[in-house]
Each structure stands twice: as structure tokens, then as C-alpha cells.
UniProtKB/TrEMBL annotation:
Family: Belongs to the UDP-glucose/GDP-mannose dehydrogenase family.
Gene3D superfamilies: NAD(P)-binding Rossmann-like Domain
Chain ranges of the UDP-glucose/GDP-mannose dehydrogenase C-terminal domain: 321-413
Coiled coil spans: none
Keyword Oxidoreductase set for record: yes
Signal peptide range: none
Protein name as annotated: Nucleotide sugar dehydrogenase
Species of the source: Streptomyces johnsoniae
SMART domains: UDPG_MGDP_dh_C
Residues passing through the membrane, by range: none
Entry keyword set: NAD, Oxidoreductase
Matches recorded under InterPro entries: 6-PGluconate_DH-like_C_sf, NAD(P)-bd_dom_sf, UDP-Glc/GDP-Man, UDP-Glc/GDP-Man_DH_C, UDP-Glc/GDP-Man_DH_C_sf, UDP-Glc/GDP-Man_DH_dimer, UDP-Glc/GDP-Man_DH_N, UDP_ManNAc/GlcNAc_DH
Pfam family, one: UDPG_MGDP_dh_N
Amino acid sequence: MRWSPGPVAVLGLGYVGLPTALALCSAGQRVIGLDTDPHRLDAVRRGAVDLPDADRARLRALAAGPSFTLTGDPAAVAAAGSVVICVPTPVDDHLLPDPRALRAACASVVRHATAGQTIVLASTSYVGTTRELLLDPLADRGLGPASDVFVACAPERIDPGNADRPQAAVPRVVGGATPECGRRAAALLRPVAARVHVVGSPETAELTKLLENTFRAVNIALANEFATIAGHLGLDVTEVVDAAATKPYGFMPFRPGPGAGGHCIPCDPHYLLWQLRAARVPAPLVDTAMTALAARPPAVARRARDILAARGVPARGARVLVAGVAYKPGVADHRESSALRLIEDLLLAGADVAYTDPLIPELPVGGRLLHHRADPAERPWDLVVVHTVHPGQDLGWLEDCGPVLDATYRLQSPKGRYLV
């Protein structure tokens, strides 16, 4: 008898889970979308969520149909043939992993698991998570891999805000607890991925994802460092990177910026470092890169204060506007944005800080709630710090607003432009 993966329960309807659920629906699966946050469920029902245009259209088409149901009841997992866990794995204020949501989700899946299910962990975490939070607890319940349940790790590969690289165009790595576990997980995900690359274990898949985002973190830290070097030498780092990128082998261009934000780069490598520190295994290159990334927003804030001082404006009381606070262009999401630390440091220095970002209507930071300035040119600013530039955004007003600190390194030289 041919194995069928559905219906599929997707746990967590955030920036990974919701597009995954919609893609599975579009591939012909019946999907149970599960989220413990009633506000998130309501937002999904209303379509008030940040999605690419294609996924937004999918949501509208599926919202009233029978193939996509929403629930906050964890027991709904028992009715599924397959389960995909897509909950966030953030870090805390001390850059330590905070896997509470993941532990709770996995415990819930284990509690409601039934024989024959395929269970896939898509969240990024430390090596051994799939075994520790799924395989071992399932075995304690008498559900063994490949005999009763089929468990695999297939870390997500979603690039929010990038319409040129949709989930379906990206290959997926799958590591099963057994070959049959890998085969079933691959069959589940193959319709929603460009191709599936099967590896020999969940641990291999887990370390693969950590390598991907640690690679990016190290190279972003290097690009920022070269921006400092180029500035010291009186050179344009953008011109340098563009020139190096003409080499057709051995080089991949990374651009400097105000810091690394979002749910992956500033978080995922810390799951690796935390695990290695516990075992007293050194990783000095990764450690240094993550320290440098964490220090980048304060460095931008210091540069802003230095520019103000050079112009005879004390930081205390200075009118500073931050242009763009989303963690990356094209997303309506400020979580883990480097703009948060930048603004907090400027507030602590006594500056009068405001922001403009058409995708972020309000921003809680430093114990305050700031609101988007729809007309940033309505008042004079002592300094504008450009943090995020959204696609198609008109920044012509920068030409007449006074000094500009371009932390993106991508502006076309407005008057009074400074670099970090």
C-alpha cells in the first residue's frame, strides 16, 4: 500500500510555518494549521499577516476552503498523518538560546503522537535536538523510529521578503532517524521544494543549517570590518566589494550594514556556541564574529554621536531620525532588528529619537512606544540614520534634510552623507 503523508499538521504559523502550510495546501495536501497564540490565528484568518504577494493570494484562496483549517488545540495533532514543527528558536538578552517554545511544541507533539505518523522538525536548533526532544521521548512512549513513527529533521530555508527566491525554488535538506524516516520526510517535502537532499541523520541536517547561517554571520562581520578598513584608508568599500565580486571563483560578495537582524543570523550560531561551550570545545572564529555582530549597532550609535559632536550638536536633546527599522528590506518585521539596539543606545545618550518606516507602524523600544513618522520632512533633524531601505521606497527627501549617516552603504550620495 502506498504511503500518504496527509493530512499534515503544521505547528507554528509564523514566517516559516504559514508559508509552509500554504505551500503544502497548494500541493494538494489537507493542512491543519496550529498555533497556540489566538491573536496570530485571528490575524491569519483575517489575512493581516506579512506574506509575499504569491502567498497572500494563496491564503485568500484557501481561507474559506476545506483544505486549510486553523486551530489552537494541540490535540489536533492526533488526527494528522504528518506533523511539521515550525516554532521560533530565539536567543535571550544575554545571547543565550531560548528553546522554551520548541521544547513545548515537541512535548505536545510527543504527547499526541499516534502510530504511523511522520514527524519533521523544521526549526533551527542545536545538534541533537531532534533526538533529545522527539526521538527519545517518543521511544519512552513506546513509539520507535521506522517501526511506529517516522522522525526527521529538515531545517527551514525561507528568505522572508525575497520574492525572487520562493520556498519552492530552494532545495531542502532532510535527515531521517532511519532511511525509511528520511524517505517519508523527503516525500512529504518534495512537492514544496526545488529538490530534496537526504543526509544520513537528523544531527547532520541540524549542523548543516547551523553552518549555513554561521557562514553568513562570519562573512557579514568580515564585510563590516572591511568597511572600517576602507574608511580608514579613504576608500569606498562598496566599490571594493563590487570589484572583488568580478572574480568568478572563490569569492561571494557580502555587504556591510548596520548589523545583522532577523530570526536566523543573530540567533542560530549562538545555539552552536552554547553547545560547544558546554563541552569546552573552542570555536574562536565563530565566537569573534558573533561578538562583532552584536557590537555593530552600538558602533553605529557611536558614529552618530561623533557626527553630531563634530557639528557642534550635543547628543542630549539632538533630533535624530532613524530611516527604516525593519530587520531587512521588504519585511514588516522588527524582531531582532539591529535598529532596536541602535535606537536604545541613542535614547540612553539623551537624543530625541524618532523613526520612519512605512512597514512598521509602531515600535516598542527602550521602554517607550514610538510611531512611524509618515512625513519625515515635516521637521528639521540634526541627523538622519538610514538603517533599512525598502524596495521602491522614495528617499528623495534625504537631499534636503541635513546630515545623513548611511549605515546601509547603498545610498547614491545625498548631500552631507557620512558612513559608519
